[in-house]
# Entry
Amino acid sequence: MTSLIEIAPPPTPYPTTSGRLIDSFGRVHSDLRISVTDRCNIRCFYCMPEQGAEFAPVSSLLTFEQIVRFVSASVPLGINKIRLTGGEPLLRPKLPELIAALTEMSAIRDLALTTNGVLLRDLAQPLYDAGLRRLNIHLDTLDREPFRSITRRDDLARVLAGIEAAGKVGFHSIKLNAVAIKGLTEQDVVPLVRFGRERNIEVRFIEFMPLDGQQLWSMDRVLTADDMIAMLAQEFGSLAPVPDGDPRAPATEYEFEDGDRVGFIASVSRPFCLNCNRLRLTADGKLRYCLFAREETDVRPLLHAGASESELQSAITSTVWRKWIGHDINRSSFVAPQRPMYSIGG
Ligand code: SAM
Ligand code: SF4
# Structure
């Protein structure tokens, strides 16, 4: 898929004089999410079909050298935060080598990885040794049967072993990501937060978004941040929004009276598009300014042809300049993206 709409050229000169990657609404971009594979070893129903998921040919995936070149070009534009994701990023062979290369880039002040945790038990140590310090581990439920029915795999024990291994090798900044679905995960909200509080792990609930590629999403299946805050307050006592939270972070954080925190990525009930500072690079080299974008820029041919840093930078700046004001999930005009979540990179 190349660009699906006409590309408006950026203004000349493009307003990056201060090294900032700014869009036409004045939003400054510093955060790049990189998918390293679209494959996955489980099949969460809200992200991937059970059968027949379509994957990009392995030969079309960006190499580590191409990813590093892309990041090097984006750093002078102000990118300083990177999250590696997928598909399941731990399926990408030799991932610690990429992590080591990114860790060496001093301008990257924050490097994180999002994983389903299934392979983490054996990979936690090599990831840590390569320099990774921040992990988000995806876990929707602590019960085996619901886990199996959500993911279509019986791997809960492996995920729990992965979380334990990560703590043992020294990861102190672990967060749990849980997708919140009305009529399905209400009974998991309190146990997950209790599990996290017992281990000093913050849980982040992500409202179910229309990225399943199978039209399973509907507004009445979204368990909202407000619903969950009420459940948690009933169990643990009052919780209040964290003062001075980073307005550009996707999660709104709340604090219990003892200082423990819980986060909500409330993309549906409280869209945060006006503060968005994120760009996404898919495993096959498509640059996207939004999860829900209906266009993307194919940077792989540029990387393949050995484009210069300035050629890469103009692809990045023009993509950011075209960024829309935000998604319309709450409107009837909303059109779900052609790519499901696993193929974009969450
Ligand atoms: N496989 C890894 C994982 O599951 O963490 C990384 C990729 S996954 C696409 C990234 C995140 O997307 C997951 O943590 C999951 O919580 C979230 N996610 C996937 N599909 C979603 C959907 N339809 N709505 C909301 N969040 C979703
Ligand atoms: Fe795989 Fe993550 Fe998608 Fe689940 S959410 S199917 S673990 S890529």
In short: The mean pLDDT is 92. The two ends are 18 Å apart (CA to CA). DSSP finds ten helices and 14 strands in the chain.
